[in-house]
Specification:
Helix content is 11%, strand content 53%. It has 451 residues and is mainly beta. The strands form four sheets. Strands 6-7-8-9-10-11-12-13-14-15-16-19-20-21-22-23 form a 16-stranded antiparallel beta sheet. The protein has a three-stranded mixed beta sheet with strand order 2-5-4. The longest helix is centred in the first third of the chain and has 21 residues, at 11-31.
């Protein structure tokens, strides 16, 4: 069940931020064609940009991520912004940018050190942080196929929720028209996540099969839009009304998603400035089966540098459904995927969902690139990036079904603080302590990315 909760943390602050982000972000982001980075010290005009160290990576992959171009004025703030954006590509262990001159020519030198691009990926952990849900496996990832930032990935997972997947993506398969594409195929056996259904008949498994493809266009440095379409099949042996739309426990349907993304974050895994807006609409079923419903969603994030190594982050996310029956496997949750800290392992279930987060951060140790030489390692593995931040946060959220009466006291909320570690290869380790709105505390260790 979804019990009522009494809201004791700053609910109005979260709602106010949410209203600002949702109402003002689209118009503001469309008009913003370059980041609003403070530029206090102009270094001079750039005559040319030179890229070095990219033994396998095409230079355009790096240049296309930069805001600084020939003919523009460089500043330390803009150089640092571009350095973080290049690092966010996930292709390099080190990125340095220098402004210099040779005679009358003034140039920007971008010097990178590439990762090992073919990487075995160990897969190990506990689903939703629950020790009883152990899974293990492995995969093989090619970060930079053909030197064009193309991704090839295959994986197999065993234990809890076994699955296999193979995917390919090319962020710029047609550079002239700035088109990107991707495709994936997957199969999984998923333990039912619905507490409501488990209370009725006990746990049961769902078999999912999916194949899909994506095509889209990068509109400019920060904006892109795309369409994803695919075929999905679900088999559920434990029959019960609502678990599938089809009465035989087998749903087969086509789906399609249209999406828009604006992303000007300086460092995607742990941003301190910029914005991100993700809007999508998905239609499930086009008359070929009994499945027929739609989902509308958004994820809006804003990051404010406050000076003195402080920054502020805000996020509002949610989705709503319309149309026919939404089967159990398409429900949305807090406690599975999305979490409310303070209720980290508590599951709320619904057809619709909304949530918000505020975080105040202090960079105790700003992200630093170091050369690790204590033990002999290949060059690609000897350059590591570390950072440590302190954070105070508050979360709120609600999942509900159509027809439910929703009011402020329906929301669950939590607040607390913690230490966030930026680890090599873009991994974020969060160690936190949170209290919920009944002042019950819990300790959290999480490898999820920051907001």
């Amino acid at each position: 069940m979804n019990p009522p909760h009494h809201f004791h943390v700053p609910r109005t602050a979260l709602l106010a931020v949410g209203c600002v982000l949702i109402s003002s972000a689209p118009a503001h982001l469309r008009a913003q064609q370059e980041p609003r980075v403070p530029s206090h010290t102009a270094l001079g005009i750039i005559d040319t940009v030179i890229v070095t160290g990219n033994e396998k990576t095409e230079a355009y992959v790096i240049l296309d991520e930069m805001t600084l171009k020939s003919g523009m004025s460089a500043s330390p703030e803009l150089i640092e912004y571009d350095r973080n954006r290049i690092y966010s590509l996930g292709l390099f262990t080190r990125v340095d940018i220098f402004y210099d001159s040779l005679g009358t020519k003034r140039f920007l030198l971008v010097d990178v050190r590439e990762r090992w691009f073919i990487v075995p990926v160990p897969i190990l952990g506990f689903r939703d942080g629950d020790p009883s849900k152990f899974f293990f496996g492995g995969g093989l990832l090619h970060y930079n196929f053909r030197g064009r930032n193309q991704k090839l990935f295959g994986s197999a997972v065993f234990g809890y929720d076994p699955a296999f997947e193979f995917s390919f993506s090319d962020p710029q398969y047609d550079r002239e028209d700035n088109l990107f594409l991707g495709a994936s195929i997957s199969a999984s056996k998923v333990r039912n996540k619905s507490v409501i259904q488990s209370d009725l008949t006990g746990d049961f498994d769902e078999q999912h099969y999916d194949v899909n493809g994506t095509i889209g266009k990068r509109l400019n440095l920060f904006e892109s839009a795309g369409i994803n379409a695919g075929f999905h099949a679900v088999n559920i042996g434990s029959l019960y009304p609502g678990r599938t739309v089809s009465p035989d426990g087998k749903d087969r349907y086509i789906y399609a998603t249209a999406s828009y993304v604006y992303d000007s974050r300086n460092l995607r895994e742990y941003a301190t400035q910029g914005s991100m807006l993700f809007l999508y609409f998905t239609k499930y079923g086009f008359g070929e089966s009994d499945v027929s419903f739609s989902r509308y969603g958004l994820d809006a994030r804003k990051y404010f540098p406050l000076g003195g190594d402080f920054s502020f982050a805000a996020r509002v996310q949610g989705s709503l459904v319309s149309g026919g029956l939404v089967p159990t496997y398409a429900h949305v949750y807090f406690g599975n995927g999305e979490h409310i800290r303070g209720y980290y392992r508590t599951i709320w279930e619904g057809e619709d969902i909304t949530g918000g987060t505020l975080e105040l951060r202090y960079a105790l140790l700003g992200a630093k690139t170091i050369l690790f030489s204590a033990i002999p390692l290949p060059e690609e593995f000897s350059v590591w990036r570390f950072g440590i931040s302190l954070a105070l946060f508050t979360d709120t959220g609600l999942a509900w079904f159509r027809g439910d009466k929703v009011h402020f006291d329906s929301f669950a909320s939590g607040y607390g603080g913690g230490i966030h570690f930026l680890l090599p290869y873009g991994v974020i380790l969060r160690t936190e302590y949170a209290w919920n709105d009944h002042r019950i505390g819990q300790f959290i260790i999480d490898f999820r990315g920051a907001i």
